[in-house]
Every structure is written in C-alpha cells, then in structure tokens.
Write a structure and sequence with these properties.
The protein is of the alpha+beta class and 183 residues long. It has two domains: 79 residues, no CATH class; 79 residues, H-NOX domain. The protein is 51% helix and 19% strand. The protein has six helices and six strands; from the N terminus they run E-H-H-E-H-H-H-E-E-H-E-E. The strands form two sheets. It has a four-stranded antiparallel β-sheet, with helices on one face. It has a two-stranded antiparallel sheet with strand order 1-2. Helix 3 packs across helix 4 and helix 5 packs antiparallel against helix 6. The protein is globular, with a radius of gyration of 16 Å. It comes from Archangium lansingense.
Amino acid sequence: MMMMDERVVFGNTFHGIFQIALHGRLSTAARSALGRMGLHVDRQPLPFYPASVWRPSLDIVVRDLFPDLHLEEAYRRLGQKMVTDVSETVLGRGMLALGRALGPRRLLMRMNHNFRNADNYVQMQLTELAPTAYEVHINETLGMPSYYQGIIEAALGASGAREPHVHHVRAEGSGCTYRVEWH
C-alpha cells in the first residue's frame, strides 16, 4: 500500500515514455535492465511506480539512446522526445491541436496541470516577466533538470512558440528555476 507522502509516477507516464515514445527503440540490454527493476515495457503498466524507480529507469534509457552525449544533454533530448513522440499518437495529436489553439502563453500556464497528471510530487510555479518571458520553478527534478527543460522546450515549440529558449537560472535543493522565452 502506498504511503500518503510517497512520491510516485503514474502508470500513464510510464506508458507514454516506454510504450509510445520509446517503443521498439531500446536495446535488449536496456530492456533487460529495466525488467530487473520490475519495469516490463511490454506489459500493461502498473497504476503507479515509486519515484525511486523512475530516475534509475531514465538513467538506463539515456545511456542506451544517447551514449555519446553528456548526461545533461541526453536528458534534455529525452524530455523533447517524450513530447514529440507522444504527439504522434491519436491522443497526442489532439493534445497538440489543443496546445496550438491555446498558444504558448496559455499552454505554459496549464503545464502544472499536465505535470500533476504525470506524478504526485512535481509542481510548477510561473512568474510572468513579459508576455513572452517567464520564470518557471519546478519543485522537484530528481536531479535531472535538463529533462524538464526539454519537455518545456518541445511543448512550447509544439504550441507555436517561435524560437523557444529554456535556460537553467538556479538550482534550489532538488528543484530548479528556468527562464523561458520565445518570440
């Protein structure tokens, strides 16, 4: 049974990354390593997974998919890949159309809701600096802030933002603040 304060990632998040974005792209060695962790990518996802499994599973993925990249860049690319590959599904195309209809500003304002549908611990706070510039604080990145950077970049690009830029401003404990801008 899950404790009320236990951090978990919901099964739909695992489904999105492992069964949609990464479907057929992981090596046999990576799939075996994930299986030893209890994450069987060909099975129906569990309702939730401990956050303590999420980070090591993504470590396996980035080392498998991007072995020649620095870890930070590999995580950024994985975050982008999550958004772009999921947007190629029927549900993702609907989400993409909604994102375009909302536009970058309103999409950014809704992203906390999207993160809350992925897990029970990530919260995003926005501070508007200008109509196309925000400071975004994410309370928990599990030590992979560039993963969230990639998600935000790809989501803004998919919503029609021209030249979206997401930069780390500062780390704050296990959280991170980014400056987000577009034209």
